[in-house]
Amino acid sequence: SEPMVMITTYGLLNENPEFFQTQDWNVLAFDEAQNLKNITSLRAVSARKLKAQFKVCLTGTPMENNYLEFFSLCDLVVPGCLGGVDSFRKEYFNREVSADSLRELKLISKPLLLRRTKALVKLSLPDKTIQKISLPFGEKQKEIYKKMAMTFSRQVEELIQDQGERKAQIAMFAALMRLRQICSDPAAVPGVVFDEQPAKVEHFLNSLQDHLENQESVIVFTQFLSTLGRIERELKKLGVPTFTLQGSVSSKERLRLISAFQESPEPGVMLMTLKTGGVGLNLTKASVVYHLEPWWNPAVENQATDRAHRMGQTKNVKVYNLLIEGSLEERIADLKLKKQGSFDRLFGLDEAVQESGFEGASSLTKEDFIYLLK
Fold first, then answer.
1. What residues does 318 pair with on adjacent strands?
2. Can you give the pTM of this predicted structure?
């Protein structure tokens, strides 16, 4: 038979396991391989069952949250190269990783990695500056936040006492999500009455006019559809060219919106949820990026920002991360530094391994929860 190339999606792989698993492939290339980071997910399990003479993972984010995600990708392409999953989990997950253990992991995995950073490729990209902007709570917004934080703290404390930390995980994450939502737009929280302009939305709208006057198009990332909808309504009132991407937008409409944004003769605003716009988009018309809420790790944010800071960009890119003072968002920023340190120690220079270890757990302890709410 003649050689052929088949291009498919992870969704189709899940839906047609018999076809893909019965073929003897010569080469398997898993693009955007971070989709396979969860070793127990259906798509990762399906991918691991494929037979091939050679496999390769392509990703700009080989690890987002913990070292077990890195194990999942390595073990997919070279099964057993990092040992068994149970022993790896015991050594590198849910515990502080020693410098010796990390050095061993780096030495073993180094022959499997070909890593090229933007600096090494010499793309000659314009500069990228990142600025953290701390905004004060509005009085009513602060009152809502404090009341909800106290309520959640009490509820989680009781749940931990009754069922233990492990079973309280969902409740802790749900509480943190609600508090982050209050920092963004309290009106989105069920049962909360809030008819004011949220601090972050007000700051963005006040800053936008300067960007537009400077002929700068803007990308806005938010994790909440309610915040996206509020900003979209405000921009349309102002007559600003606005393009909105979210999960419900069809593939055809998605391509149309991206093309319209890129080819617009005047500056505009592209509104996106972080999940929808995190990968696979070229939005070099924009030279300003706003992240309205901090994410847990910098890898996700950086990949989203790089929708603008990529080949084809001719302007310096300005990135603004908005945080609410005195909220859990400031503590999330501290966690991001730890996440970045974890990534750098594995994929960076050898000297980085000498630094102290990182607790690479994807779960929350009672102490973590109290720290974020304090």
1. 129, 288
2. 0.72
